Each structure stands twice: as structure tokens, then as C-alpha cells.
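Kindly review both lines to help learners:
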Amino acid sequence: MDINTPVATIYGGNYDKYIDTWKKQVAEVQAKFGGAIEEVRMPREFPTEVPILYVKKESIIAVLDYLRGAPGLEYGFLADLTATDEEIDPRFEVVYQLLSHTNMARIRVKVRLKDGEEIPTATKLWEAANWPEREVYDMFGITFTGHPHPRRILMDERWVGHPLRKDYPLRGYQIFPDTPAPKPEYLEKGDR
């Protein structure tokens, strides 16, 4: 298997239907945002199944908003938001997976961050970004400025560190014997 050949996906390995559209969309975004787009990786040119836009953190909200609402793009669904720890400089990548129901296509947007850098929240564009951003903070320590509930979501509030960072100790577990049972109203209503 050649690493540069994308595997069959929801596109059935047939990218011809999508490649031209993606190229036009990416060219439109590059023309609008210029230097804010640091790099583009397209299927068939890189081992990826969808286009990847690397965006400067200062422009991420403007680019996401444009992708979300511009006619012909309409990537209005935030399918996923996560991060990776690459252990290189810049260390982290925040990853936005977007879906266009109109075009039945996906696009991936990434922002490279150095350790300790913050990034604006996407909750003003998608309320659904709330919990994934909290998870990224909890697991990687990446802070989303302007987030409505900037606190841990998976780990105990007393937890020290962020377990998905590659510098986190392999045996870095912490035990809190006095942890109370969760309150039933939180389980039923959530934190809102």
C-alpha cells in the first residue's frame, strides 16, 4: 500500500467529484485571507482524505466563520474539535473537522500553537464547541480565550497536569479518596 494513496472513505476513493470543488473553495479562502493561510494540503498531493487548511491563530475565527457561512462553502457543521501534541515546535495542533451538508463534503482546519499559547473560542460560532474545547483544555492544557465555561470536563478539578500531553508521566495517575459521588441533578441537567 502506497502511503500517498488515500484509502477509501465516505468518498469511495473517488475524489474526482470533489477535487475540483475543493480546489475552488480553497482558492477562494486563500484569496480572501491571504497570509492567514499558512499551508494547504490537498488529497492526492498529501496522504489526506480531505483538504487541510493551516491557519494562523489570530485569524482562526474569521476563517471558520467564512467557511461556515459563505455561499458555496457552507461548512456549517462542526463535526469534531480536538488537538494533537506533536512534540515539535510549534508543539500543538488544534484541529477543526467541518462538514457541509449542502455540498456533502468535509474540510479540516488546523492551528499550530506553541506550548502556553492561547486560541480564541469557537463557541460564538458553534455552541457545540463548548465541551470539545473543555476536553482539549483538560487533556492538553490549551486555553480557549473567551470560553463561557473554562474548566475541566473529564478530570477531577484537583487533577494536576494534562494527561494527553506527551510530557505527562506514564504512571501519572492521582487518587482522590474523598471524592464525593456526582450529584444526580448534574447528571440529569448538565452544567448549564
About this structure: The chain has a mean pLDDT of 89. The beta strands are 37-41, 52-55, 77-85, 92-100, 105-113, 119-120, 144-145. The two ends are 48 Å apart (CA to CA).
